[in-house]
Amino acid sequence: MEARKLISEKLNDSQLRQNLDFAMSLLQTNRKKLIKERYGDWEGLREEGRKVKQNALSRLPELLQRFEEKATQNGIRIHWASDANEANKIIYDLAKQHNVTKILKGKSMASEEIHFNAYLKERGIKAIETDLGEIIIQLIDEPPVHIVVPAVHKNRYEIGEIFEKHLHVKRFSDPQDLNAVARTHLRKEFKEFKMGLSGVNFAIANEGAIWLLENEGNGRMSTTVPDIHVAICGIEKIVETFDDAVILDTLLIPSATGQGITCYNNIITSPRKDGDLDGPREVHVILLDHHRSDILSHKHYSKALSCIRCGTCMNHCPVYEKVGGHAYGATYPGPIGEVISPQIFGIDKYGYILNLCSLCGRCSEVCPVKIPLAEMIRDLRSEKVGQGSGEEILGISRVKPKVSEKIGFKIFAFLASTPWAWKLMLWKVRLLGPLGKPFASIFPMLKQWTSCRAYPQIDANFQSQKLEGVIYE
Ligand code: SF4
Predict the structure, then answer these.
(1) In this predicted structure, what is the pLDDT of residue 473?
(2) In this structure, which CATH number among 3.30.310.70, 3.40.50.10420, 3.40.50.150, 3.30.2270.10 belongs to the domain 39-290?
(3) How far lies 394's CA from each of 109, 158, 222, 382, 386, in Å?
(4) Which of 94, 168, 347, 385 could form a cystine bridge with 351, CB 3.0-4.6 A?
(5) Helical H runs in 114-241?
């Protein structure tokens, strides 16, 4: 669907807005309360987190190599995938080798990024989601609306209806009953599976281990019950030490859900060993690049790879809160999505989502690893119209500004930097503005502008206001 139409559809969905409003304010409040009560020096911790990620990213090739060596020594098989197709093919080939027709899935945004479910479906293999939110959206065939809470746009009554329709059970609305329905549905599935798939929160180079965080136990089931466990790991998930991962974990969980710790912490160091009672007989880790190396090569935008996927930038974004994740049409929505989706999937295709930002800067203020999101969104906009750094980056084919735009901005720059001209312009707008109002619907540019904005009112005292000069660094 055309972007403008999609956004306006979401804006007009009052139920969606109500659900998002409730969920986002709950997530914000829980985070704020926990940080205030439990964390003496949250800002200091954020700075530590930033340094941990910057250190890892600045030595990424070395740490990836160390991770591969250690993990291989531990008996984990490492695969390298340069793009989505390679990653999907590796998993598909593994499934074929083991005659697997269904794969049990824990939550993984990397698998969403490579459109794993669709790839397998086309080849006759079914991926069964096990995370509660993912089950809900899989039943209604929708992509995740949020990177942490995939079905946050649905309330419990709507979830009850979905379960009634697709799982043929009584309609419930109590969260405990809804959980019980999902549990019964999944227990049947868990018995039959040979292969489980998961994401990775942190890959620890010194240990050759992966760390998965979750709240429902489905991740542990997906990684221990089947004979084969495959984990998809974006290369930016590498950290050097276990202590580094602990710092990031301490930042991630309060930011994501307002909890101090997740219910389950799965640290996987090897396949099942002789004498172990459970665990997979094979563990495979796919190290996924998919344009991450391109992002890393740019000194400014590489900071986006510090993201630990907590989702708090979405929870605090005034635009996301109004339209939800589907309006972005990309795997990664919200402020971090605006920075990485155009870089991963192409700015030609996803450049429009850079407009879903008011540049208020809340995202940068709350990001636990201090990614300057608002600044990067602004700079990417600038890249998109060919006024950015000028370096060859991100495969961007720049949109040349129109001549009318160039002239418009030149006139604006003159007015904004010349006090007498600015005052004269305000005087004219104040005088002639009311006459322009009825004609706004005739001129295409004014029509678009005024369709969802009030016609500007000029303060009667503008003549007496002092115009201060503002100097930017
Ligand atoms: S950019 Fe920051 S706030 Fe947003 S998801 Fe990533 S770590 Fe969280």
Answers:
(1) 34
(2) 3.40.50.10420
(3) 21, 40, 35, 13, 13
(4) 347
(5) 116-122, 132-139, 156-167, 175-190, 218-224
335 alpha carbon – ligand 1 mean position (Å): 8
The residue assigned the tokens 């939110």 is 133
Can you name the CATH fold of 1-14+299-400?
A: Fumarate Reductase Iron-sulfur Protein; Chain B, domain 2 (1.10.1060)
Nearest CA to ligand 1 atom 2: 367
How far does residue 325's CA lie from ligand 1's centre (Å)? 15
Strand partners, 71: none
Nearest 5°: phi and psi at 171? -80, 120
Across the 473 residues of the chain, what is the mean pLDDT of every consecutive 10-residue run?
86 95 97 96 98 98 98 98 98 96 94 96 94 95 96 96 96 94 84 90 98 93 93 98 98 96 95 93 97 92 97 98 95 96 86 92 98 95 75 59 84 92 86 74 73 71 56 38
d(CA 304, ligand 1 centre) in Å: 9
